[in-house]
Amino acid sequence: MESRKTVFPLLSLFVFSLLLGRGSGRHHVDYRFNSWPTKLFVFGDSYVDTGNIKATNSSSRNLPYGITFPGVPSGRFSDGRVMTDFFANYLELKSPETFIGWRKGGRKGPKYGMNFAFGGTGVFDTSFPFPNMTTQIDFFQGLVANNIFDPKHVGSSVALVSPSGNDYSFYQERNGSMEGLQPFIISVVNQIAVNLKRIQSLGVKKIVVLGLGPVGCLPQPTANSSFKHCNSTTNSMAKVHNLLLKQAVEKLNKDTKGSPFIIFDVYNAILSIIRNKGSPKARARFVTPLKPCCFGVSSEFSCGSVDEKGNKMYTLCKRPKSALFWDSVHPTQQGWFATFSSLASSLKHHL
User: Fold this and answer.
1) I need a labelling partner for 107 at 20 to 30 A (CA). Which of 25, 27, 48, 284 fits?
2) What is the largest CA-CA distance in the chain?
3) Any catalytic annotation for residue 255?
4) How far from chain centre, in Å, is Cα 204?
5) Which parts of the chain fold into alpha helices (H)?
6) 62 vs 14: which has the higher pLDDT
7) What are the beta bridge partners of residue 295?
8) DSSP state letter for 285
9) Which positions carry the signal peptide feature in this UniProt record (predicted)?
């Protein structure tokens, strides 16, 4: 997600049964590693973007973003590290270089992989003029085709894929109808499945996709309750998406030897942190978990915004480490650490 985006519309939950189309025969390719993965390729949005957006396009390039890490705004939508950083650290890798940074530098293939994610983007096009996930994969395919990453390197890699809800926010912005939401959810999840299979076809051995988080618990929709209550209707929409994603991934793994596709259950990970007001695994404590650290002084402003005189138009908490959420839709570094800590155990078996 991007901080200017709205979250799911407050719509009633559709009760429906969906059968995703069945593919053709199984692939007989072994997607197990011979050794620990050595590269990470990242696709998606602001939950995993580490700096692909330029300064003129995003608040993530303004203070107070980046005050915890690296100390100045880096393009991460947080006070510090995001999911990509913790994922890479788990793999004992440095966070991979951003695609825009690499293209500007003109160097050879980066050692640790590459990050193609752009904040604000979706599976399909959104209101943000940045590459959607299909285009991001096009970038990756081009680098593979031009031997920037040879097959051996790609074969020892993991992909992290983050579709965190911008498609649904854009659907709301376009005044999408309740009647049209059901087929739209289906189309989003089906396209995610196409994207995952395409990344795998380019030689990536393991692909981790983020499920949708409890978007009804984000500061943006909980502001109306003074950050005290999640919106259960909005969360129900995320559950529908996650159910369909689970079915799609099960289908992909059934058709692919080695089960290369893994879902990160972000929904239950974050919801557990909220309910427990922290995470024992991460030794994190969030007394008011729904309240963001950085928030605009009114609905017209967001974290990092200033008026024409340069005056700050946001409030900032004293200790970002004590907050689960950084701004209206993004976790803090500590929030991401707590979330990843609860998910990491699911990686050990697969990797």
Assistant:
1) 48
2) 63
3) no
4) 19
5) 83-90, 99-105, 133-145, 151-154, 166-173, 178-201, 219-222, 232-254, 266-276, 333-343, 345-350
6) 62
7) 315
8) E
9) 1-25
Count: domains in the chain: 1
> Is 21 within the bounds of a domain?
no
Residue 327 appears among annotated catalytic residues:
yes
Residue 41's CB: how many other CB atoms inside 10 A? Answer: 28
Tokens for 22, please give them: 């069945």
3-state secondary structure of 158: strand
Relative to beta strand 284-285, strand 278-279 is antiparallel
At 312, which amino acid appears? K
Kind of pairing between the strands at 113-115 and 97-98:
parallel
pTM above 0.85, yes or no: yes
User: 92 with 36: CB under 8 angstroms?
Assistant: yes
* Sequence letter at residue 31: Y
Cis peptide preceding 64, ω within 30 of 0? yes
Q: What is the mean pLDDT of residues 246-274?
A: 94
Structure tokens at 290: 């729904």
Beta strand pairing call for 294-296 and 314-316: antiparallel
Cα 330–315–291 angle (5° rounding)?
Answer: 45
**46, 279, 328, 342: which is the annotated catalytic residue?**
46
What confidence tens digit (pLDDT) does each residue in 274-330 have?
999 999 888 999 999 999 999 988 777 789 998 888 899 999 999 999 999 999 999
Peptide bond into 37 cis (omega under 30): no
DSSP 32-60: --SS---EEEEEESTTT-SS-S-GGG-GG
The CA dihedral of 283, 284, 287, 290, to the nearest 10 degrees, is -150
Please report whether residue 25 resides in a domain. Answer: no
Write down the catalytic residue from 59, 85, 157, 330: 330
- Of 327, 328, 341, 342, the catalytic one is 327
Residue 24 within a domain: no
Angle between helices 266-276 and 333-343 (to 10 degrees): 120
The domain of 58 spans 39-346
148 found inside a domain: yes
